[in-house]
Amino acid sequence: MNLKIYKRGxxxxxxxxxxxxxxxxxxxxxxxxxxxxxxxxxxxxxxxLIPAAVAAAFAGLIWWLSNVPAVANFLIAAEGEIKxxxxxxxxxxxxxxxxVIVVVVAMSVGIGVWxxxxxxxxxxxxxxx
Length: 129
What we know:
By secondary structure, the chain is mainly alpha-helical. It folds into two domains: 1-85, no CATH class; 87-129. The protein has helices at residues 12-40, 44-66, 69-84, 90-128. α1 runs antiparallel to α2 (44-66) and α1 (12-40) packs across α3. The longest helix has 39 residues, at 90-128.
């Protein structure tokens, strides 16, 4: 078994973040398994060791996958692309958010008024028949 890290130091943050998120999902699954096994059996060893083994197996799988050359190269490239992104300034984001909120409110009011007008129009037509 090869325990070397493929391209050590490259894509470190992306690999750590991806691995952490995957392990949190696996740990949540192990917690659910622990609760379900607790309802099925009174054996503390069974309801504790099986989920722990599942979590450990997933941790090993996540570590192995993060060192597979194809996956590692993808994560390294993804981190490189994220570093190239030009992020908007705080002022630009604030202005864009205000514009979006104003447009949504204006559209909501317009649609609401149109709904009321059409409601009166069609209620008058229904009364005629």
